[in-house]
Design brief:
CATH architecture of chain B: 2-Layer Sandwich
Strand content of chain B: 25-35%
Radius of gyration of chain B: 16 Å
Number of domains of chain A: 2
Order of helices and strands of chain B: HEEHE
Number of helices of chain B: 2
Oligomer: heterodimer
CATH topology of chain B: Alpha-Beta Plaits
Largest sheet of chain B: 3 strands, mixed
Helix content of chain B: 25-40%
Number of domains of chain B: 1
Number of helices of chain A: 6
Number of strands of chain B: 3
Chain lengths: 188, 107
């Protein structure tokens, strides 16, 4: 594997949650269940008393399920749905890749939100406490509370946030959106 | 754009507006109270205080009390805008009493 491929693989692994825990747990439970069924079958073949339930009784329960059997089936269905969701969902970690020639760089979304918020605060000439940033996969939402009597221009601030985001060359791309609160705060 | 920023605290702003309002009402600063509010992103000003007026039967009475307050209101607005550099929203002036100017006899 070339270095580039290793890096892109590393970055992908950092951007997405690993499924290994879910896989290990599911496999361990399946193995235990298979071992139990095997044990019961062997005991039935040797005509020994069953541990809990003989295979004949189990088959009868499947043919004519009582309410306990139905409840167990429902629980298994829920577990199946959870496992399906874990398998299909992308499992994103809330991070972005910063394009870099020599390194694999991944930044947490909260760190990005802080950086974009700080640069917007500097552009608006406001204290950092008056700017809140929230970064999702494709959007950076920035909420600014202006000082009463000092109106702010959302387009200018969006442009400055855009410049910072472009300079970072993030992947997936971020689109900034600056929202200026309707009501300001007295003093700055 | 040079880095850094200018910050004016709410208290400094309030004292400044109080001084401006007292000047335009013609009364001491200690008699005037000013409350600053946010007016949809603009600086809203609520002034409460007395108004300085000439005696009722004075020959040089000038304009009426209400028009004096209107003039004071407009002057407060333009002065706050130029001195504090804020975009001013509504300016509310509540006059609680009159301070009558003592006229001296011309000797």
């Amino acid at each position: 594997m070339t270095e580039k491929k290793i890096y892109s693989r590393l970055v992908r692994r950092s951007l997405h949650r690993s499924r290994s825990v879910a896989v290990s747990v599911a496999l361990a439970i399946t193995a235990l269940a298979a071992a139990y069924v095997g044990t019961e079958s062997v005991l039935a073949a040797l005509t020994s008393p069953p541990l809990l339930l003989s295979p004949e009784a189990a088959l009868a329960a499947v043919d004519k399920p009582g309410q306990w059997e139905l409840a167990g089936a429902a629980a298994l269905a829920v577990i199946a749905l959870v496992l399906l969701a874990l398998a299909i969902a992308p499992g994103r970690q809330g991070r972005h890749e910063v394009a870099n020639e020599r390194m694999a760089v991944v930044v947490d979304d909260t760190a990005l939100a802080g950086a974009i918020g700080a640069s917007t605060a500097a552009a608006a000439r406001l204290p950092v406490t008056r700017v809140a940033g929230l970064v999702s996969r494709t959007r950076a939402d920035i909420r600014v509370t202006p000082t009463s009597g000092a109106p702010l221009d959302a387009d200018t601030l969006t442009a400055s946030a855009s410049a910072l985001i472009d300079s970072l060359d993030l992947h997936p791309r971020l689109r900034p959106r600056v929202a200026i609160a309707a009501n300001g705060v007295i003093g700055s | 754009m040079t880095p850094g920023r200018v910050s004016v605290t709410a208290r400094a702003l309030q004292r400044t507006v109080t001084a401006i309002a007292a000047g335009h009402l013609g009364v001491p600063v200690s008699n005037v109270s000013v409350r600053l509010v946010d007016d949809g992103g603009l600086l809203g000003i609520a002034v409460t205080g007395p108004l300085r007026l000439p005696p009722l039967r004075s020959p040089n009475r000038g304009s009426g009390a209400v028009s004096r307050v209107q003039v004071a209101r407009a002057d407060i607005r333009s002065d706050v805008a130029s001195i504090a550099g804020s975009a001013v929203g509504s300016v509310t002036v509540t006059i609680t009493r009159a301070i009558v100017i003592a006229e001296k006899r011309v000797r």
